[in-house]
Design goal:
mainly beta; NE0471 N-terminal domain-like; four-stranded antiparallel sheet; three-stranded antiparallel sheet; 7 strands
């Protein structure tokens, strides 16, 4: 049995290792990546230049930094907090 989570439409890196994530149901959430930096898998995100390279998976199922680092839409949805009043920025390019 699987749950359905909204797909990711936009992601904007913010200060403090936070992501502003826009979902296809119109909800925006802020996800704090700081706790992830304690794990080896996410340690490279301490680099601000890498952190800012985040982008949305083409199908909306995750946000991706590189071939080794990503976060699923379910984690972003469950672990994010409401970003009422904050609008995700339109991706450039």
């Amino acid at each position: 049995m699987s749950s359905h989570f909204p797909k990711v439409e936009t992601v904007t890196p913010r200060s403090g290792k936070r992501l502003l994530v826009g979902f296809d149901n119109g909800v925006a959430k802020v996800y704090d990546c700081t706790p992830l930096l304690e794990t080896n898998a996410f340690k490279p995100l301490e680099s601000e230049s890498l952190f800012r390279q985040v982008h949305v998976d083409p199908h909306g199922y995750a946000v991706i930094w590189n071939d080794d680092i990503d976060l699923a839409e379910a984690e972003l949805w469950r672990g994010g907090v409401s970003a009422a009043g904050q609008r995700p920025e339109v991706p450039v390019g």
